[in-house]
Write a structure and sequence with these properties.
- Helices cover 11% and strands 42% of the residues.
- It has three helices and 36 strands.
- The longest helix has 34 residues.
Length: 530
Amino acid sequence: MKKLSTLLALGLFSLYSANAADIGTNIEQNFARGTTATLTGLVWYDENSDGIQNEADHGIARIKVHLLKDGDDTGEEVETNPQGEYKFENLDANHKYSIKIDRPKNYPYFTIVNEGDDESKDSDIQKDSISDEVLLKEGEVYTDLDAGLLCVCKGAIRIEKSTNGEDADKAEDAPVLKVGDSVTWEYKVENPSNLKVCNIKLIDDKEGNINCPSTCLDAHTDMTCTKEGIVKEGAYTNEATVTGTVEDNNKTVKDKDPSNYYGGVTKIDIEKHTNGKDSDTGSGEKLGVGDKVTWEYIVTNQGNIELTDICVTDDKEGKISCPQTSLEAGESMTCTKDGIVKEGSYENEATATAKDPQGNETIDKDKSHYTGVSACIGNFMWLDENLNGVQDAGEPGVVNIKVELYNATTNTLVATTKTDSSGKYMFCNLKPGKYKVKFEQPNTYLFTLKDKGSDVKDSDVSKSGWSHVIDLEAGEKDLTIDAGIYCECDDYEVNPDSYTKQSASISFVSSLALLLFVILATSTLKYKKD
């Protein structure tokens, strides 16, 4: 019984070990399959030159195939087997791969590329001997990167199409042409075989039938056909297809070749703003003289190709510094310039220039305006002879009296002046803000009644000579801040309830007049008391 148990245990252990080994192998295989990829395909002879693998076509052995990874030659190469197959294994996944074919002398040309709708039956080799790229995923086995070759011994026809002299088969190699310019396509049709080809027809999928010098080509001869057009905007691809009949065997031969250009629109736009306003016309915003002004120059590439050598100038402010000198299609940037507001109407014009990749220049201009206005506070100090607080006709101005302007927010002195020969004063070139005016009080004079009439004709100061707070806007001229004064000797008439003393200025009056004044004043006070 013990022996049987031992045998069973050994059997289970062996089974476990075998399974474990298989599991390890599977894990290793799965790991390899998950992180690497395989690329394989066929190099074949296109018997009827139609670009599609048919039953009559066969693989070609001993063709050297090179491997490219992300566009670079890896140095790895293989030869096709007797069936024309090649294979590259254990490739790093998540990379783009392509192949390059060494053409033998008896198969000097590739057949039509990407013909038909079946990827497994077409040829993927371009005329530069390099295939399209494929992105290999983890564990993938890609089998459809194939190459069809042509033999010149049975007749063939080839076409090379160029745009303005450039063989731009791929869109990334397309020349940039200016929209509206002329474009010339050249179609070089070649018979590389040893047999004569006739009934040659050339069709462009966008430009239609193309006229050629001849409909036949002898062995190893060629001809060039041309077509002219006008450059259209954006990416433009047209493909030429040439067909012919081999004279000896009546076989139809065919070839295709695409060409590309990019119709470039070269257009720059500039929009000029003054303090954030697009003041293209008119007098523009009113700005305070002496204030800071900021011009913004918004430059936009309104074309579809990159612009370089961008330069912005202002006819009044000179060259404008910008954050960059190139803009991609649709890209914008903002350049700025600061200045000081000048008085009166001000117009300046901005100019933006740039170049496209072909050196074509584009230019745009834009004007902007403002009106520099001087913000001022004034206006008049007068002798209020009739003591009514209003400037009446004939009442004189007070000359050479100090007037001070204060910032009402910080209570700091801003400027000082004096009344002129007519009693007027003025503070100008002021920034927007809150202000107060302080009038000097002449000796033996008091300030008259406040706010007894219109703003233009009344007195605006307190008994201590301070005006109310003036909220000054940009360019505003407030010429209503006036101050009326009267002699202290008349205070009993202006302020009878608070009158306490007479002015010392009475000393200029005669003794008799003084006596009469005292009697009259005493009688008046007594009368008011009674």
